[in-house]
Amino acid sequence: MQQEPKWRRRAEDRPDEVLDAALRLFASKGFAATKVEDIAQEAGISKGAIYRYFSSKDEIFESLVRRAVAPIAERASKIAETSREDPRIILKTLLTIAIVKLSDPEILAVPRLVLQEAGRFPELAETYRREVLDRGVAAIEKIVQRGIDEGIFRPVNARLAVRNVIGPLVAHLLLSQIFKFDAERIDSPQDFLESHFDLLINGLTPHTMEEG
Amino acid sequence: MQQEPKWRRRAEDRPDEVLDAALRLFASKGFAATKVEDIAQEAGISKGAIYRYFSSKDEIFESLVRRAVAPIAERASKIAETSREDPRIILKTLLTIAIVKLSDPEILAVPRLVLQEAGRFPELAETYRREVLDRGVAAIEKIVQRGIDEGIFRPVNARLAVRNVIGPLVAHLLLSQIFKFDAERIDSPQDFLESHFDLLINGLTPHTMEEG
Amino acid sequence: MQQEPKWRRRAEDRPDEVLDAALRLFASKGFAATKVEDIAQEAGISKGAIYRYFSSKDEIFESLVRRAVAPIAERASKIAETSREDPRIILKTLLTIAIVKLSDPEILAVPRLVLQEAGRFPELAETYRREVLDRGVAAIEKIVQRGIDEGIFRPVNARLAVRNVIGPLVAHLLLSQIFKFDAERIDSPQDFLESHFDLLINGLTPHTMEEG
Amino acid sequence: MQQEPKWRRRAEDRPDEVLDAALRLFASKGFAATKVEDIAQEAGISKGAIYRYFSSKDEIFESLVRRAVAPIAERASKIAETSREDPRIILKTLLTIAIVKLSDPEILAVPRLVLQEAGRFPELAETYRREVLDRGVAAIEKIVQRGIDEGIFRPVNARLAVRNVIGPLVAHLLLSQIFKFDAERIDSPQDFLESHFDLLINGLTPHTMEEG
DNA sequence: CATGAATGAGCATTCATTCAT
DNA sequence: GATGAATGAATGCTCATTCAT
Question: Per the CB 3.0–4.6 Å rule, which of A53, A65, C60, D172 could disulfide with A15?
Fold first, then answer.
């Protein structure tokens, strides 16, 4: 669109392209096993050029995570207040979105990497926790709490119940995406989601006749 | 207990000491960021001595995992058949054992490492899946299925329900052990377990009056 | 002469410089006792730079030999057919060239190294044998055979006679170049050559009166 | 034969057994590639025991060579004076002995090793030259000179003619033993020896009609 | 600005030598 | 004396980072 020389074509997109490339490689080979040169090649630029945008390999990783974290953090915060709908509907919507998104290995890659490299990048892990986990958990907690307040859910400990909301999802992803568990069977994400939601809501729902 | 009367300067259990040291370091810094020399130092021997027991750094990692996997695999298989008790009791017992064991960072370290390095050691990940996950999941599935057969649980998909049994536990461990989430709060493992079990069983229990 | 207009900090011939440096060092200290860092230093570059041109120390050695072998192999094959001159003249020419060339330690170094490292690099030894020895020996055999056919030489076994052509040369080189034999005396290569040629031709020449 | 405990059985032979073992290994893998532990194992003793007899790996090599050199040096010196026979007969005898001995890889190994490691052990190379080469060459030179003096050989330069005596032998050994040249053909050592001797003697013999 | 040649600290691994048993 | 566990210097190789072109 511009009349600049060819090589400047998308100079402003470069950093993002580098991060995309790095993400792909980090996700498949891990941070340590990925060479800066590999990233450069994957991004279609030279090794030296990488250092125009990022001051170190570590910084690439950090930028990568922060870039992925930002929108999630924003969204997560809004969700809880935004809707006035039935908490069950909201939970199902959230879980659906989550499972769809996270079934994309490219998206799952970031939390996976944070998990992998938490030891080497404690600060990053902390950032992730603060920006993503704290907010995400708080959002879900709020929804559950509203359900309790509205009498739709039983008076459980909302904060702890969050683990029952996200846990099965996490387990499903670990098993299917990382350990290739059940690779041959035909448990679609939808099947899982139905099952999870059914058990979750049934678990949260107050019933006239509770047994000790 | 000794197999050979041959002497050892100080050990027969050197290999185990090396694995213990390696586990500590791998767990805190990751495989790649841990130097063989660090392991040696942590184990109180010299770099060269490591290679008397293990032929490579990779082999240390693999031995580490296999050593941890073996007993778990055995136990997991037995659990399902062993008991004829109320499936709810069994599940609670299992979850209690699991959370107690896995709250020990030294024990959590192995699955965590497998998760971390699955990309670099696909074979090991597969071994772990086969030996630990397949069996563990099968054991739980069997218990749930028995509960269903005995009318104690609703007729859910037992295979998928397994994720609801282990997922919250996984989520709890990730949050608390790895992301130091809730570090300041006082959610004891017991609190979590009560909450999880309550929701889980309530979710699995058939109620006279189900609402759409 | 340049193949690509791409720039090089200082070279295009770095690989050759590395091989030259390696040759000098391998020749004087042997393959095993030569450190890659030594080669780098001798070549005036850094250790790491070596690996831009050669993937391993072994590869340096192999390249070294192959570089030296190629032109020899070519020449050797041509010699036998090229000339129609008196076989005695050809032999003398060949021996003269050989002794002049091989008296240069830099040139002698390669066959010497192949000899030294034949055990460690059997494949390389075989390559050398095939490319250099087979052809060289065949060329000389052909010349001797022609001399026999033309009645200039006695009807000896040409193949075995080759050893009498090259052997004294080999012995001379081993003694003088490697064992510093006769270092103080004044046997010039020319003196040796005259002596060798005289004995060789006299040995090959038919005489009217042979004595038992 | 003695009533000492088993392990002392042949304590005095140990050093020689170590040298035998070392020779076998050095010959097949080279000095650098042979581990002291390998030598110990091959000799049937422990690594530590090696150091009771030799203070270092280098010393093993040096002892090895010196042990082999001693008898050769002695014999070589005697040969020239000992016999009053026809120099041609003496030469043939010597060459026969030489080729028979040196066709045994175990015996060829020492000169081969000296050649290989001359760079790393210059002193040893010098010793070898002094003890073996100087004497051997002098012995042959003397025989040739006597032949000249007695009118059996032409008045050649005896010192240089030595190369024509031993050279073809050296060439034959290098080609056959080290480069596996002619492995498939059937040039027996005897065939070679006949050929060499025929050419050598014919070359040394004065003929009534010499041609320019 | 872009490039990729060059650097050199860093690390896994080997092995001659020592020495506690 | 004999053993082999332990040591640690040595070395090949890698790769993040720099910088001449």
Answer: A53
